[in-house]
Write a structure and sequence with these properties.
The chain is of the alpha+beta class. 27% of the residues lie in helices and 20% in strands. The two termini are 40 Å apart.
């Protein structure tokens, strides 16, 4: 017969969020800042005060070890266990009369804090968290009789004050016979939603006392221009002469890298960065049951604990339908506590309706009354949308599917107000093509989470970027100065660019930049003969500083070139050659993917092999440039994942698409696990991302370890590091 300890472990793996209040006391003590006492002998309780945040040491001590993909669930040391009769299995706080909590004893004889189990039931859980017994009677929070004279019970929404003095157990659940049980599944959510999502919590508008001190020392975007060659003979003309435009965002301040200390929150610590409105759209379909859902809850717990009191969060959970767990609210102490409680209540069942989840996430953003400077959506799914996109079995038809229909028109890149969706494909069964299309259409990135244990690190890297936005609405202009110079089309990846009809000017729209992020763009021009030094072009840019809420205009940097009579022994710029290699490698990846989708895997491998050969013979490649070494390692891994159709379908497609997303936006993505035993690729990571990854791995080490990259040469887009053995 299964022991109580095994039942508790199984409950922890499925239902419980692993972020729990610290300072537990075996003798009945409550957490610091705990609930006010006042429970009478009949179980009624006065209103409870919010629990204060816990320390990092408490968090680390209570964090279970990360399971392997084949494990049944999270493991918790027996030394940290509590008897279900003495400790609430949901919040892990000791249950004792006289400590400000009403208690509820279920028909299976397990006892919980009433507000804990009522919230659990409200979000769809109608089984015992300890023994998994199905309940015939369920607890609900009820209002005071004065508000409802007829005694009609209602569910208490997550953002309303808890009134534990008034409680009730409403109706018995209808029984479903075994033949029809699948048609009577308990709905995931059953609380009513407002028609309009304009119930967002007001912003925390604190006076910024640091602006005056920052105004005089704030840095601006760094702009550099590199010509392919420094001189051209007087009598010579050049077609498609290449120029590199290099941009680097300002550094993050100390407080900007880490938004919040685990031990305590501080509004003042956020004055040096732009606060965020974040909506997470989470897949809780049946395939997420077990370890996947437990790891997702842990990852969301890390996100909730990382956000500061000026940041706002809303969570959308979707399976066959979608539901908003709670309104867009600030992550204050009480906000974090209730967000953790809501995420903790998630259960997995049903199908996968990504479009409905995104529609509801977009609705939260569209209808909010107030707006933080930074806004984004995080989407995670481990399956394929079976409600909006017609399925197809052949890889040759994949490119014809209209994946853009999954993205609400309000957040597409074609609209004036773009909301990036950072998509995370979880496991081998997700539809990487649709997730990549969603992110590409909205201006976000696509990451491939191949190993289940990497989900928290993936979220941490993304959050590290979102919490360090220092540039918004960035625009770069290129203007030809010499009358004989003309621009060719600009290679800008996924960023929108244009060239005037007369070829005399062009521009690139970059949007947001994280602290220390770099962007490189190649511009080709035609140069006529000239008898003296000439000014080829001028580069200028403008952007909005989200912290200062000011527009910054940078005057252009002019590019001059020498025109001697004879030029001998000239070498190409290493900076230009390095960027050419990156762009051409990305083009080879796209060509190889197109061949693979047509079933020509051998052709795809040959395309990548040829690019590796050219890369090794380039100027930067021969000099041992680290970017070139990283590109070669990436191309090699893509070849291995295209070795056969089964490998390509299982992980190759997702790996290639994640790499293409990273290169096209020049932004870090997660790309599965490298099979190369010598190096691990770190693409476009910023110090803020590395800092957040270190926090994630320090608080909860995972099998997917990512060492901080060495700060490389000027192009810090890539670095290679020894892989842990």
């Amino acid at each position: 017969m299964e022991t109580a300890w095994r039942r508790a472990k199984r409950a922890l793996a499925v239902n419980l969020c692993v972020y729990v209040p610290g300072n537990l006391d075996d003798d009945g003590g409550s957490p610091s800042g705990g609930h006010a006492s006042g429970t009478s002998s009949d179980g009624a309780a006065s209103e409870a005060a919010p629990v204060s945040p816990w320390g990092a040491s408490d968090y680390q001590a209570l964090m279970p070890t990360t399971p392997t993909p084949t494990s049944a669930g999270l493991r918790l040391s027996k030394s940290g266990s509590r008897s279900s009769k003495r400790t609430c299995a949901i919040c892990l706080v000791t249950m004792k009369s006289g400590h400000g909590h009403a208690l509820f004893t279920a028909e299976c004889s397990h006892t919980f804090h009433f507000h804990c189990i009522a919230s659990n039931v409200k979000h769809g859980n109608r089984v015992c968290p300890v023994c998994r017994a199905k309940w015939k009677e369920i607890p609900f929070q009820a209002p005071p009789p004065s508000e409802h004279p007829h005694g009609r019970a209602r569910v208490n929404p997550i953002n309303w004050p808890q009134e534990e003095g008034y409680m009730t157990v409403v109706r018995r659940l209808p029984r479903a016979d075994s033949a029809n049980r699948q048609h009577h599944l308990t709905p995931l959510f059953h609380t009513s939603e407002p028609v309009y999502f304009n119930d967002d919590e007001p912003l925390d508008l604190q006076p910024d006392t640091t602006r005056n001190s920052q105004r005089g020392c704030s840095k601006t975007v760094e702009v550099k221009v590199y010509p392919e060659f420094s001189a051209i003979p007087q009598s010579a003309s050049r077609e498609n002469f290449t120029i590199l435009i290099h941009l680097k965002a300002p550094h993050a301040s100390t407080n900007q890298v880490s938004s919040r200390n685990i031990n305590a929150s501080s509004t003042a610590s956020q004055t040096s960065r732009a606060p965020v409105d974040l909506v997470t759209v989470l897949d809780v379909s049946g395939s997420m049951a077990g370890t996947k859902l437990a790891l997702l809850k842990r990852a969301m717990g890390f996100v909730i604990q990382t956000l500061g009191p000026s940041d706002r969060l809303s969570v959308i959970a979707f399976s066959s339908t979608a539901r908003r767990l709670f309104h867009l609210r600030r992550m204050s102490d009480s906000g974090r506590q209730q967000a953790l409680q809501a995420v903790n209540s998630l259960v997995a069942n049903g199908g996968t309706n990504i479009a409905e989840g995104l529609r509801k996430g977009a609705k939260v953003i569209e209808e909010r009354r107030e707006k933080n400077p930074v806004c984004s959506i995080i989407l995670l799914s481990d399956g394929q949308d079976t409600y909006t996109v017609a399925s197809n079995s052949g890889g040759t038809q994949r490119s014809q599917v209209d994946y853009e229909s999954l993205v609400p028109s309000s957040i597409r890149g074609a609209t004036s107000y773009q909301i990036p969706v950072h998509a995370f494909g979880f496991g081998a069964d997700h539809d990487s093509a649709s997730m990549h299309s969603i992110s590409e259409t909205s201006g976000g990135t696509f990451s491939f989470i191949e190993t289940e244990g990497a989900i928290q690190d993936a979220f941490a890297q993304c959050i590290g970027g979102l919490l360090s936005v220092v540039v918004q609405e960035m625009w770069v202009g290129v203007e030809c100065v010499h009358p004989g110079v003309q621009l060719a089309p600009i290679k800008s990846g996924s960023y929108a660019s244009q060239v005037a009809g007369d070829g005399r000017s062009g521009s690139i729209d970059l949007g947001d930049l994280y602290a220390d992020e770099e962007r490189d763009f190649l511009v080709s021009i035609n140069i006529p003969p000239a008898r003296e030094e000439i000014v080829l072009l001028k580069v200028c840019c403008s952007y909005r500083d989200p912290v200062m809420n000011e527009t910054v205009n940078l005057e252009g940097e002019e590019l001059r070139i020498q025109r001697p009579e004879v030029v001998a022994g000239q070498t190409m710029s290493v900076e230009v050659d390095r960027e050419k290699n990156r762009v051409q490698a990305a083009e080879a990846m796209e060509a190889a993917r197109a061949a693979a989708e047509q079933g020509a895997l051998s052709d795809a491998v040959s395309i990548l092999e040829e690019r590796r050969r050219i890369l090794s013979e380039s100027l930067a490649g021969r000099s041992g440039d680290r970017l070139c070494l990283a590109l070669d390692a990436e191309l090699k891994e893509m070849q291995e994942r295209m070795a056969n159709r089964q490998r390509y379908e299982a992980s190759g497609r997702a790996y290639v698409l994640s790499g293409l997303s990273s290169h096209s936006w020049q932004r870090a993505t997660l790309r599965g696990d490298s099979t190369d035993s010598v190096s691990l690729i770190h693409a476009y990571q910023t110090p803020s991302m590395v800092n957040m990854l270190e926090r994630s791995q320090t608080l909860s080490p995972s099998p997917w370890l990512l060492n901080p990259p060495i700060h490389p040469v000027r192009s810090s887009s890539f670095a290679t590091q020894p892989q842990p053995r």
